[in-house]
Structure formats: C-alpha cells, structure tokens
Write a structure and sequence with these properties.
The complex is a heterodimer.
Chain A lengths: L4 E5 L3 H17 L3 H22 L2 E9 L4 E9 L7 H4 L13 H8 L2 E7 L3 E9 L2
Helix pairs in contact in A: 1-2, 2-4
Chain B lengths: L5 E3 L2 E5 L6 H18 L3 E5 L8 H17 L2 E5 L3 H10 L8 E2 L2 H11 L3
Helix pairs in contact in B: 1-2
Classes of the chains: A alpha+beta, B alpha/beta.
C-alpha cells in the first residue's frame, strides 16, 4: 500500500497533529464538515490508542480513487504489546485505561470499513476507510 | 496552553477556541475548579461554538468537569455544540446525558438562571 503521508505518534501533541492533517486531506478529497469531523475523531481515537498503549507508532493517510468512488484510507500501526482479547476491545464500554471505552467500537461506527490485526507482543495494525457519498 | 476563564458577576464564562489537546483539557479542568473555588461563582458556561472535534477523551474531561463543579456547588452549562460534533459524539456512543446544554451563550445564561432560580 502506498500511503501519501504519515504522522509519527510519539508525544501527546502528535494526536492533534494527526487529526489536523487527516481533516485537511479529507477536506481536499471533498468530504463535508460532518464527515470531516467523523474522520478527524476516528483518527484522534486511533492515535490516542497508540500513544496510550504502545507509546509510539504512526498514522498514515491515503486518498482513494477508482472509477466509481473516492475515499480516504487511514492506517494506524504500532509495535506495542498487541491486544489480547480483540473481541473485548470491540465491546462498548470496555476500557483498561479508565476512559469511556468508546474508542474502537466508536471508530468502527464513524467509518465505513474497519479492519484490525493484532498479535500479542508484536503490535497492532488498524485500517479504516471512509467513502465519499 | 491555558484557556482563559472570564468572570461576569457570579458566573464564569469560557469560550474554547483552540483544538484541544489532552494536556490543555486536563489543565482547563484544574483551572476551572480553582477559579470556582476562588471566585465563589455559582454558575459556569462553557461555550463550544468554535470546537470542531470532541473525541472520547475530551468528552470525558468535559463530562467530568460538569460533575466536579456540581460537587463543589456550581452549575455548568455547555453551549454551542456544533451539528457535526453532536453527530460524531452519538456515533462514538457518547450521550453526555446528565450534562445541561443550550444552543448558544445567551440561552446558556438563561438556563443557568433557571437552574439556580435567580
């Protein structure tokens, strides 16, 4: 996969940097304000998960365009501890950090496609897509 | 970065006009509680008209600061939540059910007066 731009997540401020860049890319693709907010929020959740659970990682963006549709693909990747119970983290309200537990199930609802792979001790890779309607 | 907190009679007014990072949000929580303590304010309006993203962390901080202020005896009203932000919050599964809200600053002040029966 060829991603145009990535933001390294190392410090807390990078969460804001990632969502601002993602929102800019989404706007250029032609997304309206509501979808821009959805995309920026999803990026914020993904970047925060990296910062909280893996420490470092990156979030990458790619504009998608084929014959019929346009969209944005976002990849969030880290080499952190991985997720032991994938089904658990996809449940609303499940949190190990004292947060709202809205993160990943929320991201899934905000976006159109959601794909996660995670291996304990190796890391986590989440790819999401939002299509332009 | 610090968010300015203005005092107007016995109310505190805050307009958040920056993209909130986690640290600024936590700092704001502390600053607001100290300001309530120090000023003896009975009501607070937090205006979110210029905020174009509220993720789960910021939502938790805002919800918590409402509860914390309530514990101290000050009522908080959130105002000006953008349509896109409202839709995104519901997608995220965040309902902020016990949080008083109003359309804009003016309505927020009216609501505060009603809640405080002034």
């Amino acid at each position: 996969m060829d991603f145009q731009s990535c933001v390294n997540i190392k410090k807390e401020w990078d969460i804001v940097g990632a969502r601002q860049l993602g929102r800019d890319i989404a706007r250029k693709i032609g997304f309206g304000t509501v979808d821009q907010a959805r995309i920026a929020t999803a990026i914020s959740e993904l970047a925060r998960n990296i910062y909280l659970y893996a420490g470092t990682g990156k979030v990458c963006f790619e504009a998608l365009e084929d014959m019929n549709q346009k969209g944005i693909r976002i990849l969030a990747i880290d080499s952190g501890p991985g997720i032991k119970e994938l089904s658990q983290v996809m449940e609303d309200g499940f949190s190990t950090s004292g947060g709202l537990g809205a993160g990943l199930p929320g991201v899934k609802r905000l976006m159109d496609d959601f794909d996660i792979t995670s291996e304990e001790g190796k890391g986590t890779e989440i790819t999401v897509i939002k299509w332009l309607r | 970065m610090r968010i300015p907190i203005l005092k107007l009679h016995n109310y505190l007014l805050i307009s958040i006009q920056i993209d909130l990072d986690d640290q600024t949000a936590i700092q704001f929580q502390e600053d607001l509680l100290s300001k309530i303590h120090e000023s003896g304010a009975s009501g607070v309006v937090i205006d979110l008209t210029s905020v174009d993203i509220i993720d789960s962390f910021i939502a938790k901080v805002l919800g918590d600061v409402v509860t914390m202020s309530d514990l101290m005896g000050a009522k908080v009203v959130l105002t000006g939540i953008q349509p896109a932000v409202a839709m995104t919050l519901i997608d995220l599964g965040i309902h902020l059910q016990d949080v008083p809200t109003a359309l804009d600053l003016e309505q927020g002040l009216i609501k505060l007066r009603q809640e405080l029966e002034e």
